[in-house]
Q: What sequence folds into this?
């Protein structure tokens, strides 16, 4: 077992603060809202600490304006620099930056990630074409992150296929299941437990190499969701067990 992972029961009790690097973007903001609703303290990390603080206050206001019977708490969302946010996280740091800044951001944060789990949600969408991906040489972004950070820092790929619009629409539950992959089983289980606190189901989809398939699903979903030939948008992936 990784020294940074824990069983699900411990995770629910002890993981109280999660950092989201790139938390001022649509995906990061939606994830912050969902985690805050689940009782998790969230630290937004940005290259611009002032923007992170401003975004945090906006999200707190957003939550206070929603009439959500399932949530009666007070949101704990703060904003600071990427480095300070990474330090502040208990054990989990979510990376939600544009793919173009993925490797540079991780290189900067690597010394601060020891003893933590990195949850990488970045998808390598093709520049100027969100309906396609350009996979990195390692095979996937998740694998690239693991290679860059080394095996002492577990990388878990997750949340690649959920729409930012869905995450930010608090009037609805998350409408899809979450496929989780990575080479450290205990780290994956801890991340799955965190995800399920947001009211959706997470599945262990295998080792980090599974991210090659999972990340590549995102442009397919984007293509479907913007198509005039289908009567929906913001759809995700659902694992459907037999009905018998």
A:
């Amino acid at each position: 077992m990784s020294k940074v992972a824990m069983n699900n029961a411990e995770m629910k009790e002890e993981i109280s603060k999660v950092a989201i690097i790139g938390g001022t973007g649509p995906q990061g903001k939606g994830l912050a809202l969902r985690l805050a609703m689940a009782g998790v303290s969230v630290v937004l990390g940005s290259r611009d600490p002032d923007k992170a603080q401003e975004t945090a206050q906006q999200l707190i206001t957003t939550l206070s304006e929603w009439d959500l019977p399932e949530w009666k708490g007070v949101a704990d969302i703060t904003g600071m620099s990427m480095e300070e946010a990474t330090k502040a996280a208990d054990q989990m740091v979510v990376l939600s930056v544009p793919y173009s800044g993925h490797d540079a951001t991780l290189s900067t944060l690597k010394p601060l990630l020891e003893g933590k789990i990195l949850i990488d949600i970045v998808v390598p969408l093709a520049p100027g074409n969100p309906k396609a991906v350009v996979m990195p040489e390692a095979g996937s972004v998740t694998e690239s992150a693991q290679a860059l950070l080394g095996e002492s820092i577990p990388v878990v790929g997750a949340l690649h296929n959920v729409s930012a619009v869905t995450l930010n629409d608090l009037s609805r539950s998350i409408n899809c299941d979450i496929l989780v992959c990575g080479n450290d089983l205990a780290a994956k289980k801890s991340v799955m437990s965190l995800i399920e606190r947001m009211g959706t189901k997470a599945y262990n989809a295998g080792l980090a190499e599974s991210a090659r398939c999972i990340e590549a699903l995102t442009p397919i979903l984007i293509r479907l969701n913007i198509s005039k030939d289908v009567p929906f948008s913001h759809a995700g992936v659902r694992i459907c067990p037999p009905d018998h």
About this structure: The CA atoms of residues 34 and 98 lie 21 Å apart. The two ends are 36 Å apart (CA to CA). The beta strands are 17-21, 41-46, 77-81, 92-95, 117-120, 125-126, 129-133, 155-157, 178-182, 202-204. The longest strand covers residues 41-46.
